[in-house]
Amino acid sequence: xxxxxxxxxxxxxxxxxxxxxxxxxxxxxxxxxxxxxxxxxxxxxxxxxxxxxxxxxxxxxxxxxxxxxxxxxxxxxxxxxxxxxxxxxxxxxxxxxxxxxxxxxxxxxxxxxxxxxxxxxxxxxxxxxxxxxxxxxxxxxxxxxxxxxxxxxxxxxxxxxxxxxxxxxxxxxxxxxxxxxxxxxxxxxxxxxxxxxxxxxxxxxxxxxxxxxxxxxxxxxxxxxxxxxxxxxxxxxxxxxxxxxxxxxxxxxxxxxxxxxxxxxxxxxxxxxxxxxxxxxxxxxxxxxxxxxxxxxxxxxxxxxxxxxxxxxxxxxxxxxxxxxxxxxxxxxxxxxxxxxxxxxxxxxxxxxxxxxxxxxxxxxxxxxxxxxxxxxxxxxxxxxxxxxxxxxxxxxxxxxxxxxxxxx
Length: 409
Description:
This protein is an alpha/beta fold. It folds into two domains: 9-25 and 203-408, Dehydroquinate synthase-like - alpha domain (Dehydroquinate synthase-like, alpha domain, Up-down Bundle), CATH 1.20.1090.10; 33-200, Rossmann fold (3-Layer(aba) Sandwich). Helices cover 51% and strands 10% of the residues. The protein has 17 helices and nine strands. It has helices at residues 9-15, 39-42, 44-51, 61-66, 70-78, 95-107, 119-134, 205-224, 232-254, 259-278, 283-295, 299-314, 318-331, 341-358, 375-382, 386-389, 398-408, and strands spanning 33-35, 54-58, 82-86, 112-117, 143-144, 154-158, 170-174, 180-184, 192-195. It has a six-stranded parallel β-sheet, sandwiched between helices. The protein has a three-stranded mixed β-sheet with strand order 5-8-7. The protein starts with 8 loop residues before the first helix and ends with a helix.
């Protein structure tokens, strides 16, 4: 994918004759999207029509304690439905949790599933709906395009602005020990995604910051992805996502009740999700996964810790440097003349270290109790993420990964 100095990506394509026609691509996203303050309450009739009257809500204990989905349960009851709550989902959900969810759904003969919360409940909801509908063996669906469906009706309702899971065909589950395994298939895209910014108002500052950076990572990696499906729509989505996220992340952290900032964050997160769902992420995620698997560092924070190092590493690739220079104009514009794409890309990488500090996030692995002796294993584990590493603009080996972890330590 080529990048120009123009602020408009569409302009980039126009400058290269027949660029669009020469780039066939696919673009999958959720069938229906409802966005806006109060959109959940306004969608209750539609939910019953879509999901049937035996609806399973998959969430976590924190949201149960907050009573965040209690109004939804009452609406389901008023409209003649029956709700079944499974709120045992933990961060980085385990295989045993997924199996418990599937068993609970079968036991109650649910007609439809709602994933309510962050990425973890939504990931469990996707696979619960898939296995109930398809009757496939779970062991047969791991990997890319192995889930054949059908699935039972599915709705996803995010309460964080970060994962974009409500518009991605991906579900990640922690198997035995530290191994993470994924299902990638358009079959698990939901029938309906409801994005109500008011549901994100209670997020703590640290969660707001980490999930916000996570969404920015999705946009950056999608924009510069080496995937053959890096396409016109994904790049437009990624760029506009960064405009929204850059404009709102500090305001959301500083004042969690700022509904305008929260709305921009949620929209930006969704658009970044649309982008990377079709132009997949790369080495930042590959290096972040072992931090979550081994040390249970939240996914957004894991991404933020390795992001500057991966961006710096990629900055020495001409194509990546050009992409990052383009994005720097959005995220951290400078009045100084650009000397070279490489130097501008390096400035872009350093910006994210300072952003994490400004947002109050840890910026060193040692600050989270990760010993230097663990870095070798982290590097080995990162190399197992071949599905992600293949999309990185610059080829990365174990020694490279180790150096990035050391720079983050």
